[in-house]
UniProtKB/TrEMBL annotation, chain A:
Subunit organization: Heterotetramer; composed of two copies of TRMT6 and two copies of TRMT61A.
Single GO biological process annotation from the record: tRNA methylation
Protein's UniProt name: tRNA (adenine(58)-N(1))-methyltransferase catalytic subunit TRMT61A
Cellular component GO terms, alphabetical: nucleus; tRNA (m1A) methyltransferase complex
Acetylation listed as a keyword: yes
From TrEMBL, chain B:
Biased amino acid composition, Acidic residues: 268-279
Places the protein is found: Nucleus
Upper taxonomic lineage: Eukaryota, Metazoa, Chordata, Craniata, Vertebrata
The organism of origin for this protein: Pteruthius melanotis
Similarity comment text for this entry: Belongs to the TRM6/GCD10 family.
GO terms for biological process, alphabetical: tRNA methylation
Keywords: Coiled coil, Methyltransferase, Nucleus, Transferase, tRNA processing
Protein name as catalogued: tRNA (adenine(58)-N(1))-methyltransferase non-catalytic subunit TRM6
Length: 306, 483
């Protein structure tokens, strides 16, 4: 296994994802002799995990079962230990496409944070590209290095512990893309420009506040970036539910034995073939929005180096 | 991979994308080919050799010329008003007439200068607020300063272009939705992907770009063959296509049930007929392809080509063949070519079938005009466990049904039905606000992860159904409902 290459069977040293059910999963480091506690009982790595196929169902000691999944950056994003606020796959997806990232790309990123975006970038640029990621917090930088090692991707990434606004990314004129998620991105635009290749490089800055965006756009313009464009993207998730609605009793007209007039089995009724007339209800399938959704994460500003 | 080197240059034969502000158009770079774009016409000849990303001006005569870097007019405190209470829009504030402007254009005056003239001849310009002046200048520049940038195609560029110009061709798949698919599907180098799309090959191209030529793709197609119009726009190097296979949907059922054969191809009925008619004089030619393939496992396929007709041909009178030789020489060539092509097609088909039969694909992407449910239920069979799949549909309802059928089938977890909402912003000092809303137009996605399918009992047993869905005390029990 690695985050950049699929494997079929679970091996000692792998990071695997234990899936217990709807929105309930956690990562586990597979190790001979270790056990993992779950609400369904104990999982013994040596007998239950190692050698099994990814995607297998594993029955735990109390009788309940779980699925063991191959790690992906997306699953990692949902399960990694947060050291900072992270970027989620919705933003990561549009960032990846708008920065035109692909195998072989060279990307610069700051700050590394908890490594959510980092893992996704590494996956996209593998096997011939590279990620240069800069983090000014020493422990976070070290933790990131450790995780990249454990996940088998250390050859694709360089973690530098410094302040990108003062000292840049540590490389010049080679990056295809630069990504900034820092409090004062306008202070790093100059460094971003020198890290980028001569022509056609792409830059992205992520900021929660519009004031930060304004200052950053101004800086980009001053440094000669073109195609400056700011957007935001929101994810709307729907739960699939079978809904039953009651038919109201509207009474009857005098001397009229027919139904209430609302013929729930008429073809015009919202495509549902199954009306339960006995109980005076109508059923249909619906995609119901979640009650609480993530509203705003941040604004994404993209530009091109000319 | 061709990254990390000097910037790419525009070459003859390339597929390039013309860009002016937010408008894109894909064109073939050919000499002496008249291009019409944004109400201008020109030749691309002068662009050849320049770096992608270069901005050009259209000169009179229809030639491109790289735009010189211009000093932005310094924002000296120009005369400006405070608001528009006294500005009357009577259509008479511009003193230059259509003819005057045309005369300027004909004289070859640069757009920049024309804009300057318009400003000087506008009676209301100095009464406008600074912001309004700014807006006025931008608008005139847009109209008279005809600059075109030639950009290198990429998923970003092409998906934006298709969504703006020909959304019908891509089932209204908005570019941010496509971006989600590529990430949710964990598309990366080395994957073995199954792609089923009717988006003119745009989705296929996007997948190929993210795979960088590594790994393999089996494209499932309806009808006679896959459409790859958009794919060719990406400009991938030839080797990218070595591991791109295709397989007809019409053969999927037979493949799944084990009754697959190459006897009836979804090919030109004309093609087949031709081979049968003219096989009589072709014994010699037929031998060669057969011999060449003896080592290949697909030798079987070659042998299948009408062994009985071979027999007939041999029996035929040799004199007859020689007599007709001249007349039929040309026909022979054509037929031989067609035969080789058909044999090659059969070989490729068997290769694709073999790849599918392994049932170990690393992912599935579906984005088509067809109802997604039958596609998912059949194509998921070819995907390994613990792999992501993503289905796009322009409409939400079919995905509701798909979700339900997948639950019944089992072998999938983490099902999610979603859409993305995208908003662009104008960011200017004191003038920042959202630009336009594009919500509701991007299409929907259903994604999930495969798991080992328990053939014995369905995975959607009571306990799992309850586990998988949020509890709802007033909800009728699903099991009791007829649908």
């Amino acid at each position: 296994m690695s985050f950049v290459e699929y494997g079929d069977t679970i091996k000692d040293g792998d990071t695997a994802i234990v899936f217990l059910g709807h929105e309930s999963m956690f990562p586990v480091k597979v190790q001979h002799g270790t056990v993992t506690q779950t609400k369904y009982g104990v999982i013994r790595h040596s007998t239950d995990l190692i050698g099994k196929k990814y995607g297998s169902k594993v029955t735990c000691s109390k009788g309940g079962w779980v699925f063991i999944l191959h790690p992906t950056p997306e699953l990692w994003t949902m399960n990694l230990p947060h050291r900072t606020q992270i970027l989620y796959s919705t933003d990561i997806s549009i960032i990846t496409m708008m920065l035109e990232l692909k195998p072989g790309s060279v990307v610069c990123e700051s700050g590394t944070g908890s490594g959510s975006l980092s893992h996704a970038l590494i996956r996209t640029v593998a096997p011939t590209g590279h990620l240069y990621t800069v983090e000014f917090h020493q422990q976070r930088a070290e933790k990131a290095r450790e995780e990249f090692r454990e996940h088998g991707v250390e050859h694709l990434v360089t973690v530098t512990n410094q302040d990108v606004c003062k000292n840049g990314f540590g490389v010049s004129n080679i990056a295809d893309a630069v990504f900034l998620d820092i409090p004062s991105p306008w202070e790093a635009i100059g460094h971003a420009k020198s890290a980028l290749k001569a022509e056609g490089g792409r830059i992205c800055s992520f900021s929660p506040c519009i004031e930060q965006v304004q200052r950053t756009c101004l800086a980009m313009e001053e440094y000669g970036f073109t195609e400056i464009n700011t957007l935001e993207i929101l994810l709307r998730v729907y739960n699939v539910r079978t809904i039953s609605l009651q038919i109201p009793d509207l009474g009857k007209a005098a001397e009229d034995n027919s139904s209430t007039g609302f013929d729930s089995s008429s073809p015009s009724h919202q495509g549902s073939p199954c009306a339960n007339l006995q109980q005076g209800t109508v059923q249909f399938k619906s995609g119901v929005p979640l009650r609480e959704v993530v509203g705003h994460t941040g604004y994404l500003t993209f530009a091109t180096k000319s | 991979a061709m990254e990390g080197g000097p910037s790419a240059r525009i070459r003859e034969g390339d597929c390039a994308v013309l860009k002016r502000d937010e408008v894109f158009k894909a064109v073939s770079v050919l000499r002496r080919r008249k291009i019409i774009f944004e109400k201008q016409w020109f030749y691309l000849d002068n662009a050849i050799g320049h770096i992608y990303g270069t901005t050009f001006e259209v000169t009179s005569g229809g030639n491109l010329q790289p735009k010189q870097e211009v000093e932005e007019t310094t924002t000296e405190t120009k005369e400006a008003g405070t608001d528009n209470r006294n500005i009357v829009d009577d259509g008479k504030s511009q003193k230059l007439t259509h003819d005057d402007i045309k005369a300027l254009k004909d004289k070859g005056i640069k757009g920049q200068e024309i804009v300057q003239q318009l400003i000087e001849n506008s009676t209301t310009f100095r009464d406008k607020t600074e912001f309004a002046q700014d807006k006025y200048i931008k608008k005139k520049k847009k109209k008279y300063e005809a600059v075109i940038t030639i950009v290198k195609p990429s998923t970003r560029i092409l998906s934006t272009m298709y969504y703006a110009r020909e959304p019908g061709k891509i089932n209204h798949l908005r570019y941010d939705t496509l971006a989600q698919m590529l990430t949710l599907g964990n598309i990366h180098a080395g994957n073995k992907m199954i792609v089923m799309e009717t988006c003119a090959g745009l989705v296929l191209g996007a997948v190929m770009e993210r795979m960088g030529g590594y790994g393999s793709i089996i494209q499932m197609y309806p009808g006679g063959g896959p459409v790859r119009a958009a794919t060719s726009c990406f400009g991938f190097p030839r080797p990218f296509f070595d591991n791109l296979h295709e397989f007809p949907l019409s053969k999927v059922q037979s493949l799944l049930s084990g009754t697959f054969t190459t006897e009836t191809l979804p090919a030109d009925p004309e093609e087949n007929a031709l081979v049968e008619e003219e096989s009589n004089g072709l014994t010699e030619e037929k031998q060669t392809p057969l011999q060449e393939t003896e080592e290949e496992p697909t030798a079987e396929a070659a042998m299948e080509i009408n062994p009985t007709e071979e027999q007939d041909a041999m029996d035929m009178n040799a004199e007859d063949v020689e007599f007709k030789e001249n007349k039929e020489k040309e026909n022979k060539e054509n037929v031989r070519e067609k035969q080789i092509k058909q044999w090659e097609r059969r070989k490729k088909l068997l290769e694709a079938a073999a790849l599918l039969r392994e049932k170990n694909a690393d992912g599935l992407i579906v984005a088509s005009k067809f109802h997604p449910t039958p596609l998912l239920l059949s194509l998921l069979e070819f995907v390994a466990p613990s792999r992501p799949f993503v289905v796009y549909c322009q409409y939400k309802e079919p995905l509701l049904e798909c979700y339900t059928k997948l639950r019944e089938r089992g072998g999938v977890i983490n099902l999610k039905l979603s859409e993305t909402w995208l908003r662009n912003y104008q960011v200017l000092p004191d003038r920042s606000h959202p630009k336009l809303t594009m919500s509701g137009g991007g299409g929907y996605l259903l994604s999930g992860i495969t798991v080992v399918l328990d053939k014995g009992k369905s995975d959607s047993s009571n306990s799992e159904a309850l586990k998988m869905e949020e509890p709802s005390s007033k909800r009728c029990r699903l099991q009791d409902l007829p649908c």
